[in-house]
């Protein structure tokens, strides 16, 4: 049956199918790994590991998000209060939870890059991860400044800045595929 299906597909379709399956497999493995890791560093978790929590990548990414955010806000003249994982500008604030750190989009981006046959993977992995993080700092900054002036628009500002971040990553991925891939990209 498998061979019959493969014979029905032309070589271009086979390449795309293989890339899709490979990317989906990488995404699944990384997501499951992160889900398990997250459980190990959760102090209320059944399988909590103090050792892993001490060197938590989640806390590292949170700090790499909060410190530049606070620095920028102070330069802009705002009064900031930090009670990690919450950041307050005046009377308005946000709590930065694990889903807000951009780790899932990082996993998705890494999966796209590793799953696609092209050159300069390491360069685009690093560039993409740095870009995702910088966009996330900008996203949090925009959300904080927006809700400080207009608290009623927190949901829409959160969604808009999230979608803009996704769009930027897709553009970076497209540039990488178009310039470094063996597969022809039209458009």
UniProtKB/TrEMBL annotation:
Membrane topology summary: Multi-pass membrane protein
Main location: membrane
Keyword list, A-Z: Cell membrane, Hydrolase, Membrane, Protease, Transmembrane, Transmembrane helix
GO BP, one annotated term: proteolysis
GO cellular component: plasma membrane
Compartments reported by the entry: Cell membrane
TM ranges: 16-37, 57-81, 87-110, 122-145, 160-177
Pfam families per the UniProt record, alphabetical: Exosortase_EpsH
Keyword Plastid appears in the UniProt entry: no
Record keyword Cell membrane present: yes
UniProt GO molecular function: peptidase activity
Entry protein name: Exosortase/archaeosortase family protein
Organism, as annotated: Cytophaga hutchinsonii (strain ATCC 33406 / DSM 1761 / CIP 103989 / NBRC 15051 / NCIMB 9469 / D465)
